[in-house]
Design brief:
143 residues; alpha+beta; Ribosomal Protein S8, Chain: A, domain 1; Smr_dom_sf; DUF1771; Smr_dom
C-alpha cells in the first residue's frame, strides 16, 4: 500500500507540473497580441488566473497605467454557464480596494481603475497599491 501511495504521489506531482505548463502555454498564446494594459484569462482556472492578474496589475502600476482590462469571458464554457473568473477577479480587486466594473461594450471584460479606490473608502496611492500587491500588508489575505 505504501508503494502504491508513493507512486500515486509521483503521478499527482506530474499532473500538477503538466497543468502548470498547460496554463502557461494557454496564457502566453491568448496574450501574444494583447496590448500591455490588457490580459486575456480565457481557458484558465481561477487559481491559475489570480497570480497572473496580480502580476499584470503590478506591471500596469509600474508602467503608470490608469487602468487595465481583464478579459474574463462570460462564463459560457463554465458548467451550467455560470461565470467563475469574473466574480473571483472582482473579489480580488475589492480585496485591494481597486475599482472594477464590467466594460459596457463587452460583458466579458472587467476594467480595473488603478487610480481609484472603491466606494467611499480612502483612495490608495500607487505606492500603497503596489505594497499590498507585493504582500507587505498582512491584512490583505487571498484564500
Amino acid at each position: 500500500a505504501k508503494e502504491l501511495s508513493n507512486e500515486g504521489k509521483c503521478y499527482q506531482k506530474q499532473v500538477e507540473e503538466l497543468n502548470s505548463k498547460a496554463a502557461d502555454w494557454i496564457y502566453r498564446v491568448n496574450n501574444v497580441h494583447s496590448p500591455p494594459n490588457e490580459i486575456d484569462l480565457h481557458g484558465l482556472y481561477v487559481r491559475e488566473a489570480i497570480p497572473r492578474v496580480e502580476q499584470a496589475v503590478q506591471s500596469a502600476i509600474l508602467r503608470g497605467d490608469s487602468k487595465i482590462h481583464l478579459v474574463v469571458g462570460q462564463g459560457m464554457h463554465s458548467p451550467d454557464g455560470v461565470a467563475k473568473l469574473r466574480p473571483a477577479i472582482a473579489e480580488l480587486m475589492a480585496t485591494y480596494t481597486l475599482a472594477a466594473h464590467v466594460d459596457p461594450h463587452n460583458v466579458g471584460v472587467l476594467i480595473v481603475q488603478l487610480n481609484e479606490s472603491r466606494g467611499s473608502e480612502k483612495q490608495l496611492d500607487m505606492d500603497e497599491i503596489q505594497r499590498r500587491l507585493e504582500g507587505e500588508d498582512e491584512q490583505c489575505i487571498i484564500m
